[in-house]
Amino acid sequence: MPLKLNVGLSRKVGLPRYGSVGASCAVEVELDQGLLFHDVDTLHEKVQEAFAACRQAVAEELDRQEADDAASGEMPAENNGHGNSHHDQRLAEYRTCPLPATERQKQAIEGIAVRQRIHLPMFLRERSGKDCLSDLTRAEASRLIEELQAADRGLGAG
Where in the chain are the domains? Predict the structure, then answer.
């Protein structure tokens, strides 16, 4: 009988003027139940991979929502074009400035890089043109995590 792993993640980000956007991801994976009794380390890896996939999906969805809002020039309903111009300017800056990578994304990149024995500063420069994790946007971090995970799966298969 297979073991079912259910992983879910939700995130809500506050916006100016009491607005917010949210995204969630839920994944169900069937695993060999022997992992629970005989290979807990591999089970933990599978759980971490599922959470990483959800984190990435949620981050990408929030980035997409932000990009859609910025492209449409949408303003909160309570503004109606008659609001405080300083606040309107700050809102416009918020929408055009990409969100920075989350701490969890940075930790995931560091962890996978250590496991794969990758020289992180060189990897960052080659793949993103950035010098450090703090310079990454959420979208860039998501892309790098996906790339590292794909390489990680390739290493495990060989």
Answer: 1-78+93-98, 100-158
- 143-155 pLDDT, tens digit per residue, is 899 888 888 777 6
Q: How far apart are CA 123 and CA 148, in angstroms?
A: 10
Element (DSSP H or E) covering residue 113 = helix 103-115
Residues 6+ apart with CB under 8 A from 28: 4, 5, 6, 7
Question: How many C-beta atoms surround the C-beta of residue 19 within 10 A?
Answer: 16
Gap between the Cα atoms of 65 and 122, Å rounded: 31
Nearest to 104 by CA among 55, 143, 62: 55
**Do the beta carbons of residue 136 and residue 106 sit within 8 Å?**
yes
Which tokens belong to 53?
A: 């996939």
Q: Could you report the per-residue pLDDT of 45-65, keeping only the tens digit for each?
A: 888 888 888 888 888 888 877
Could you tell me the pTM of the whole model?
0.45
